Amino acid sequence: MTNFHLNADEGMWEPYELPKLETELKKSGFTKDVANLSNLFEHPMSAIVSLGGCSAAFISPEGLIATNYHCIESSFLQYNSSSNENLFETGFLARSKDEEKRSAPGARVYITTESTEITNQVLIGITDDTESLKRSKLIENNKKRIIKQCETSEEIECRVRTFFSGEVYKLEKLFKIKDVRLVYAPPAYVGEYGGEVDNWMYPRHTGDFALLRAYVGKDGSSNEFSKENIPYSSNSFLEISAKGVRDGDFVMVLGYPGRTNRLLTFNEIQYDLNIGFQESIKFLNQGIKLIDKNTSQKDGTKLKYRGRKSGFENYYKKISGQKNGAKNFELLKTEKSKWDEFLSFVKKNASDKEADYLEELLALINKTLKEDLARRYYGNSSLIATAQRLYRNAAEREKPDQKRKQGYQNRDQERLSNSIKRLDYSFDSNVDKAIFLNRLESYKSLSKDLRRPVFSQKLNLDQEFEKTKIKVEEIYSSRFITSVDILQLKDMNLKQMNALNDPLIIFVRSIYKESLEYEKMYEERAARRQFLKSNFIKLLRKYYKSINKEIYADANGTLRATYGNVLGVSVKDGAFYEPFTTLEGITEKHTGVNPFNVKKSLLDKIAARDYGDYFFSPVSSVPVNFLSTLDITNGNSGSATINSNFELVGLAFDGMIETIIADYKYIPQARTISVDSRYLLWTLDKVENANNILDELTIIY
Amino acid sequence: MTNFHLNADEGMWEPYELPKLETELKKSGFTKDVANLSNLFEHPMSAIVSLGGCSAAFISPEGLIATNYHCIESSFLQYNSSSNENLFETGFLARSKDEEKRSAPGARVYITTESTEITNQVLIGITDDTESLKRSKLIENNKKRIIKQCETSEEIECRVRTFFSGEVYKLEKLFKIKDVRLVYAPPAYVGEYGGEVDNWMYPRHTGDFALLRAYVGKDGSSNEFSKENIPYSSNSFLEISAKGVRDGDFVMVLGYPGRTNRLLTFNEIQYDLNIGFQESIKFLNQGIKLIDKNTSQKDGTKLKYRGRKSGFENYYKKISGQKNGAKNFELLKTEKSKWDEFLSFVKKNASDKEADYLEELLALINKTLKEDLARRYYGNSSLIATAQRLYRNAAEREKPDQKRKQGYQNRDQERLSNSIKRLDYSFDSNVDKAIFLNRLESYKSLSKDLRRPVFSQKLNLDQEFEKTKIKVEEIYSSRFITSVDILQLKDMNLKQMNALNDPLIIFVRSIYKESLEYEKMYEERAARRQFLKSNFIKLLRKYYKSINKEIYADANGTLRATYGNVLGVSVKDGAFYEPFTTLEGITEKHTGVNPFNVKKSLLDKIAARDYGDYFFSPVSSVPVNFLSTLDITNGNSGSATINSNFELVGLAFDGMIETIIADYKYIPQARTISVDSRYLLWTLDKVENANNILDELTIIY
User: Fold this and answer.
1) Which residues fall in a coiled-coil region (chains A, B) (predicted)?
2) Closest CB to B202 among A574, A589, A591
3) Closest B-chain CA to A580
4) I want to staple B57 with a disulfide (CB 3.0 to 4.6 A). Which of A612, B367, B497, B640 is the partner?
């Protein structure tokens, strides 16, 4: 038998690739026709959607969507909460469609309708000898043209996605639903039970589920929220299993994984493992301390920076886990030996040109890695970055739309406005200033050749730091320090902005030329790197072919499928993690102190042992979360975990800290944690008495 | 078959009881003659010793003793460390007897030579109608007489031990070895790997082992340290197994468990579970914060209070674990239903007198429990407590030895001096004052009738707290605030102490009368309680007999045996703890940050996979720690874990936080964590190359 890919269960596959994996799918326990899986317009793929950053699935003919609780917190719970009504505390259940709550502006449901290879169109007019900067411009212009042609209406969003570091480009065409409403969310003590403590941990007991509903106009077109809109009727939806899965069962996750780094060169891996992780830990740790020090409950800044801080903490925990995982799975050692094998293959089989390209790539990477640190500490002022972006926007808007830089076209204007509006509840100029100053001090300590000269000079970085502080104080004395004022800036044209005598804008103008130069330099370098890397991928593919293995594209936010089995695991010496956790484990963890503080009513429900149809005899209870060998990453949150019959058996919501290094290299011990469909149904039935929802679902008993 | 006791594997049995458990022992896998186990003078019991607070065992014919690392830290490692030589960092190995290091003053090895029931002698002259205070005095005098008769020489220590709350008394006669030396201790990164983080946790990877040697005079008498002393030759010693145990194997622990509370009345349990644990947590938490706030690295007080703080932390963790365990194992519910059954038995079968006694006991308990809180916050000044004790000592020494209060006799004087000397490195008057003041503030907040009136008045507790502070400042302005000065106090007679014009002594004198009155009241009450409780035990025993079960005495620091099997366990929903951990788990936990900071040389040894004779194929490595169903508690630390052939297979060193509530009620899921004999031997062999020790041991391959 041909071993198609690197390991059993490894891979985040594009739907079109699944038919060639038929033998392995069947071996894992898949019983249906594999062909079903590759058609985006058919069940089950047509039920799978993206929320942008999270995944989800239709679970009724009336546009009902299941996803993770943690995917709807900000746009639905935060947005609809007030001092009178804290949806985090109470949870929310609409007992009829009338009661459903609308989303924060900009919340979207995306349905992939097409995925087309367009490598030739993106690279049109380009040869291997095209000079890098020109290559960069050509690719950008080609992309803009392709997107413009594709986006035939306002409800269609098109994205050019890079696969295999630019060896392949694809055009993803998405239908964008703009009216999305909250149907159900449990209280936070269920939806994020265990909080930051249990994040990336197992055994786990999180009810990380929530329900939304998609609405469209009566004619089926995508409209912003309106009373006139009607529930969206998708091509298909997932039935929900009340039987759930058993240990060893086949499962599959369909969703939108965000990013993996499994096709790196060895010097890239080496850098991250030896230096990058540690630098990130330092940077994040400093960031957490900065926010703690400079925000307060009293003036509301603690709340404003809560999201940023928890982002830092989350990332800190992740990187620390990756660092440990790299050590425990001896990543450097195994990757080194694989790389050495690859290099001997290259030596024997590659043309001179291929070998030269590889050598150039490795040298280019080494060179850019050195500058990474400096870039990390540059640009940590949200205020200055926003002003820079708006000045650039004004400059770009002097040009016809198609000539503008991507990100500054007409299609980008609303997103830009929304990002400014968000400053309202996530930005404070004093806190921003304190963070900026602290980061600047680190930037100042770098050797001069790593720093931007004009930027350094304008901020007095080569003088005593007191002078820098004075300059920064001056910049922040700007009158554009609230979202309302900053939105005014957005309306100005270049002439108006140039006429402003504001210290922030004066500073932005003073470094504008330099920032364009750096952008050009980075683009040029990125274009070369992309060219060299796509050649590296071609070589790597040849190498793997020579040992009868096949590579798959790194995750890039496009629709993917991964399959595997329900299975426990041992990732710590002396401990085995069972595949299922139970309701009783919720009670066991309950301490009365957050994040383990369940309401008594839920404890009583659990104590009553009224398991109903959701009882699972191997654990003598209702399963809460389960483990499987599925290969997922960030972005897969909310993904439907389905069985062989395409029934929803869970929602994937997390991985395990011990194997989070899997983003760099597939780890056979890596597990996906899904919330069990039986826990969702038990909650809706026994806790919430949500008959309206249960009636709408197709439940398989 | 008669089910002799409450659960399989339950019980900390006295050696004489083992023959009656023969059937159950055989069922558990024991293959030898049970009779061997009940004779204190025969192998293996004659190899088992106490270090006071810890257990240990002879493992060579030349007085070599194996115990836990954590049992020898203070008297051997701390004592022999200096700024030049930190034994915690380096560990210590004597490559010949000459190199062995002596112990801190007072370190002892105790060998139990007799255990005799003496209930009748202790209760001589006492009837059920004896008035409580008289009862108390009579018992005390009887005990003193018995001990005096027993302690025929200085090397014999005799203790009257209370079993079954005073239903039974026994005289324990111990041979006391006074010259004990350090032979081997691994570095702290082995001996306490995981530190406070892993304390009471599994999976565990602690090399909690150390070796001592006992020395006696050439004539076999017990002498203090002398070059002339020779290694003690015990009646027997344990051979060490290099084969170790397998999953399911029979194991037994012989040692000195300290204290359990398994024969409480329901209102005692209820109080601890509902109020006592929480109050202790509050008290300990406050204590930890107080030490943090009032000590500093700079002036050395942080170091002085390190022991106290870690004691608080340790106890805090334990009580928190007990609180959780009580909840998870539904202790209150199961104990309530057992109690109700007991009460119906009492109703049907008890005499009126027996029932009256029970009622009186429960009422007395309820009454005293209310005062517990007040007693907790009274007397938190080490300075005042020490001065009180010395003043009392001076007063007692006016009487002939046999008339003195226990604790103030001639036999107690050396212990008293040692406790003062210890202040030198564990006491600072400013820190003591700060802690005392804080505790006083809590004491002040109690209702007046719960407080001692004279003590309260002298400390101005009914005035504003400022006045209390002034008074406390005055007391602490004493000239007796260092161990050297306090030792002077100890040499004074009562007249000299009464002539002192020192504010500390003046204060002690002013509350002396009251403290005697309270002592009398407590003694009177304790005597009644003891009488009532021994009657309760008699009733309880009848009840259990009626359901064909047998009770065993709570742990009380006497020699006990517990048997069971090597077995993993699930104590957390979703996780199973394997019975063995491995060398590779040490590497896995290593982060480079304490308490997970192993030297590279050890990591390299592990990576080399040179397992030698200690390889255990089921785990493909050398086992480090293992779990068994043995029923142990504090004081068992260092106990020999032996197999059916009485070979040492491990040293018991810890329980698991999830089942630490087992001190209150046997929990079938409770496990003992032992360090594996194979890890000890591997370390001595492969890491330390300690051929001198390996040659001395009898190793069974």
Assistant:
1) none
2) A574
3) B574
4) B640
